[in-house]
Amino acid sequence: MILIAGAGPAGLTLAIDLARRGVPHRLVDPGHPSGSRGKGLQPRTLEVLDDLGVIDAILTAGAPYPPLRAYAGTDVVWEGRMHEPVPPTPDVPYPNVLMVPQWRTEQILRDRLTALGGRVDPVGLASFTQSDDGVSAVLTDGTTVRADYLVGCDGGRSTVRKTLGVPFLGETRDEERMLIGDVQTPDLDRDHWHMWADLQTRTPGVGLCPLPGTSDFQFTAPLAPGDDPDLTLATYRKHLAAGTGRDDIRLTGLGWASVYRVNIRMAERFRVGRVFLAGDAAHVHSPAGGQGLNTGVQDAYNLGWKLAAGSPSLLDTYEEERLPVAAGVLGISTALYQKATEGQADAHKRGEETQQLLLAYPDSPLSSGPSGGTRAPDAPLADGTTLFDAFRGPHFTLLAFNTPAPTCGLTVRTVEITANPAAEAAYGITAPALVLVRPDGYRAHTGDPTSTRTYLTRLNLL
Ligand SMILES: Cc1cc2nc3c(=O)[nH]c(=O)nc-3n(C[C@H](O)[C@H](O)[C@H](O)COP(=O)(O)OP(=O)(O)OC[C@H]3O[C@@H](n4cnc5c(N)ncnc54)[C@H](O)[C@@H]3O)c2cc1C
């Protein structure tokens, strides 16, 4: 049994992945007010959500990022986009970041978990101990749970990480705080992300971003050092008036409300014995670049199939693969945040570095052959389906390019691809070859039948 502490995006993703594999697990979370906070779903995360069976609900709930509109008082002084939208291609079906309020993403994931027969237990993890053969956890209702593994998806203040004594290295920028919340106003259009910046220094001030599928705007305003406000509608009105110099924008409602302190930290280890850390429990980011939720979802997605297989050497690869990725992503979000605080002219621009499509595990012991560890792209197949259709589900996929597919075990689906220039181009195939794709959509091995057989044997897949 796998015990998961925390049902934010990371914990829910892991629970869904385990539930669809029929792996016994328990997901506990005492509950938290979840607002719009992580509202940007990156292209790679959309691919993960496709595999988990929720992409239609997510696409329906979301919308493209609106253009930014900057004001000086009532005057519009600048308009621009964070992301230039691009059309889908055969290998990248979801090329644009999608805006979905985080509470809605969590609701969709919870619904999927329920449909798979899972649920969130409304209780917290209080403490735990581990030995060579298991984890013994005490929950906040006083009950004890025995588990094979524990996964701490319990956010930046993680009880699991603290109990393990794993250092959370990095910095907290106490002086850089932001008032944030979900507010309502009838006085702004919902087609723009409205912002009031200091034009001299180009530093951001008040922002109001319309949240798709709701009547809310996400409100953000920098807080001066020492300002420790009450989280009431009156406070938000005061900051709006001070930051915009306007009295014609009425705030008529306040939902989720919070103060956000910039934390840039990473756990020194993502695994200690039978206990793993994922999501914000393992790394916290500045909000710039919208990386936090996305990286956590992909931590969980990397871990799910390895926990299901239960092989110690496979489980070792979780930290080997995800720790360098988290470090790289932290570097990207910190650099973007720095640009914004320094008021650089292109600070609002986002490119392919934030989309997470290029994240790869080239140095992983699981990566073998050309392009080992890189994302397995989509491509059209002769029968009108796509490779992503073939990948969807908890199995490995063996792509046989212009060669017969060998017989494999039940956990490998084989797809024969003959004379398909689009797929060959996407995978860089110039001669008959076998490509083994991991359950989490990365290329494990590319080679001939003999080397592939050796690889499959190593992973017990024949
Ligand atoms: C202002 C702001 C803007 C952001 N913008 C973005 C963005 O655009 N894109 C993006 O990707 N990310 C963004 N983020 C970050 C994103 O919100 C987080 O990275 C994300 O919520 C992390 O998910 P998680 O599942 O790891 O943890 P969390 O969402 O923090 O969930 C942790 C869960 O653990 C539970 N828990 C805590 N303690 C225990 C315990 N002892 N036992 C059991 N359960 C426990 C909590 O109740 C909570 O439900 C933003 C964050 C903020 C604050």
From TrEMBL:
It comes from Actinomadura violacea. Its cofactor is FAD. Residues 2-330 form the FAD-binding domain. The keyword Flavoprotein applies. Gene3D superfamilies: 3.30.70.2450, 3.40.30.120, FAD/NAD(P)-binding domain. The keyword Oxidoreductase applies. This is FAD-dependent monooxygenase. NCBIfam families: PRK06184.1. Pfam families: FAD_binding_3 (PF01494), Rng_hyd_C (PF21274). Keywords: FAD, Flavoprotein, Monooxygenase, Oxidoreductase. GO terms for molecular function: monooxygenase activity.
